[in-house]
Amino acid sequence: MMGCWVLNEGLSIILVLSWLGVNLYLFIDTFYWYEEEESFHYTRVILGSTLAWARASALCLNFNCMLILIPISRNLISFIRGTSICCRGPWRRQLDKNLKFHKLVAYGIAVNATIHVVAHFFNLERYRWSQSKEAQGLLAALSKLGNTPNESYLNPIRTFPMNTTTELLRTIAGVTGLVISLALVLIMTSSTEFIRQASYELFWCTHHVFIVFFLSLAIHGMGRIVRGQTQDSLSLHNITFCRDRYAEWQTVAQCPVPQFSGKEPSAWKWILGPVVLYACERIIRFWRFQQEVVITKVVSHPSGVLELHMKKRGFKMAPGQYILVQCSAISSLEWHPFTLTSAPQEDFFSVHIRAAGDWTAALLEAFGAEGRALQEPWRLPRLAVDGPFGAALTDVFHYPVSVCIAAGIGVTPFAALLKSIWYKYSEAQTQLKLSKVYFYWICRDARAFEWFADLLLSLETRMSEQGKTHFLSYHIFLTGWDENQAVHIALHWDENTDVITGLKQKTFYGRPNWNNEFKQIAYSHPSSSIGVFFCGPKALSRTLQKMCRLYSSADPRGVHFYYNKESF
To answer: Can you give the residue ranges of the FAD-binding FR-type domain (predicted)?
Structure first.
């Protein structure tokens, strides 16, 4: 089967191609404008086509710098996500790819900045060479303009022996250009996966060099090094007639000496709006940082999982959303995303944190969850919370059928979802579009089931009491066990409840056969739109994407799988 799952991927391709198309249009249009514009005819005599290369890449650089801050404005994206009128269906799912788009735009900035710098290196060398004794004719005449009163210069390099680098660093354009280049190199190199994993604080600090980058970009054009003929001069000085009569410019009335000026800087016009928007974003984050977070409960679960219950004034959430958590006792710079595991109907919000790195290990230790007694409430470290922010899982209720797949600690976002379902079905007046949920959890460690089993047991009991056991179909897969566990499982296999989870539904051992699972779901819901929601490793994500594509029907009236991946 082929199908409408392709719509989601198709939109991603359309958005990327649209971005690429705008870049190409701006580059080509600007390139040919500078190649043909009459006011830059004499500038092209000195610089040749590198003038167009420099200016076209500069415009594309401005365009991408305008875009780069928008994908990381989390509050804006959450607002758009919550506005269903403006953002529905496949378009809404593109918001989950904001970081991918941010990286794509960053590559665009890097490419155009490289073209711009290289083109200007050639420009400087041509400016310098045109002042040499080897330069003859019109080229030499243009370079000498500005040596006498009432003349404006075209060539910023005034003498041939002059050191171009030294001269460049005496200008606004030169200094800001160097700062922009260094800032960009720092930001790009520190954004690699290796650096982020080895030292998050280094990544955070160097990424905030973007402030210097944008300030320098805003004033970069004030140097006005690249100059063109003024409009008043063009009306008096006919280039077609006068360009071959450069020796008579000061004597022939029809050919007065041409006058030149630099273009008005425009970069600030491109970036002003996004910078103001992002400044508002940071103000909101700072305001949230200042709000008090009260820790009401701390639970240490097996397999290195810490459960925190918190309260915060005015905090409102939806199932599947995430928050950013900062612990100043560990690092004043690091903010880490964690999916909320509580339901909106509860009077607290909670997260489950597994020790999976230096920061999370330090957090568990700070709360006394590493084999020691839990800290007294008054001794607990202070936490700051930013959010909540929207995520893919908030769309679960928008489908008649939803397939939720979790691997390991990736089960945490589904905890909030299942709790929310439990509360919604407790309210008799609630009518849900969602009529069927398939839940899959693949986990390696049997101890990790403990904290989640209570929730599933409560849900199982509740659904049974209301006669709605058909609503939730859950499948738990254990992929790791030792010989003792295998013997224990075999001895208790015939019991009514599962030996590991205590649920009526028995645990499966090994990994799911996704072909069989998707085939069965497609057969059971032949004309449904099915949302597939996943939180876990990339390798499994690729497999599930393939399954969604494979088992979606080409017929618009058939079954369609729509893939959504939880990402921060």
So the answer is: 285-395
